[in-house]
Amino acid sequence: MGTTDSHAADAADLKRTPLYDLHVELGARMVPFAGYDMPVQYPTGIMTEHQHTRAAAGLFDVSHMGQAWLIGPDHETTARALEALVPSNMVELGRGKQRYTVLLNADGGIVDDLMVTRPVAAADDGRLFLVVNASRKDVDYPLIRAALPANVRLELIEDRALIAVQGPEAVAAVAAHAPKAAELAFMTADWMDFDGIRCHVSRSGYTGEDGVEMSVPADKAEAITRALLADERVKPIGLGARDSLRLEAGLCLYGHDLDETTSPVEGDITFILQKRRREEGGFPGAARIRQELADGPARKRVGLRLDGRAPAREGAEIKVPGGDTVGIVTSGGFGPTAGVPVAMGYVAAAHAAPGTKLALVVRGKELEATVVEMPIVPHRYVRAARA
Questions:
Q1: Taking the model in full, what pTM does it have?
Q2: Which of 15, 40, 59, 94 sits most deeply, having the most CB atoms within 10 A of its CB?
Q3: Rounded CA separation 272/128 (Å)
Q4: What b/e sequence results for 315-331 when a residue is b if at least 16 CB atoms lie within 10 Å of its CB, and e otherwise?
């Protein structure tokens, strides 16, 4: 996530989120990311930001993500239109429920991963709220539109920002301004007022911690963020700590751990395939995916824990110690909570079992590593709302 020498020259071409001026005011180091000028860290540094999120609450600007509505005449029509592109059961998604899924290509490769939410209100029946990756908006939207029946449309949301608040104190900090936030269970969402400002809030996130993501009016984003940062429990967090947090949590970053060659089975995210979809198919690449489910994939995403202190970065070869190359690292770095370097990567299925000893090649040297269960740091999601 390092900056580039040409950042100053390129900055004029980068988009800015509604919180850009506040990031600069707070002393953030800004870097290009997915076409946006984004904060990679604040003056306290990535390690402190990571640890604060695990201990209290971190605030992340994720306004670069794409937000959109999929709109049809009724829920089943809209859900089935989306099911033609994703392998998850959208028809049976309950009101106010959120689901993680992936867009697939004809070969069963992952075009993007995204979040889908069905609104609570009966008046919103037939609408699904989508949040997609910033780097894939220009790919996702034409793909979705081209597959939709005439009575379902995609409507982009251009006037809202997205703020994530993550950590054990996150929901309490948000609930001080939006009491309904405390009533949400994990992977549920609803509209609510934050200091009188209408926001869409889901209990979800990308750190392995409890927390929320808030879709807010773009012109109110700075006021909402300042209100949250006035709480001593909440600190601003940049892309650097966001990356180390999600890596420890075993969560994929699109374009690194998932791409158009990777299937959900290889990516070890088969939880997105509910029983009906596994049995019926009817999604792009279903033949490949169902075969991999039955026979096992040739390669698989695994977690890795390094024995020394030197981290292995994306692109490092994974080898049998002293032997053949069996895979490649897709994400890696130091895990502040784990206390050791950690990584994720793809290895041949024969070497994917937890406990397998492997070697990661860094600067020509083989570093000892062990395949470990993911998440590397346990998730602390709150499955039901606190009383």
A1: 0.96
A2: 59
A3: 17
A4: ebbbbbeeeeebbbbbb
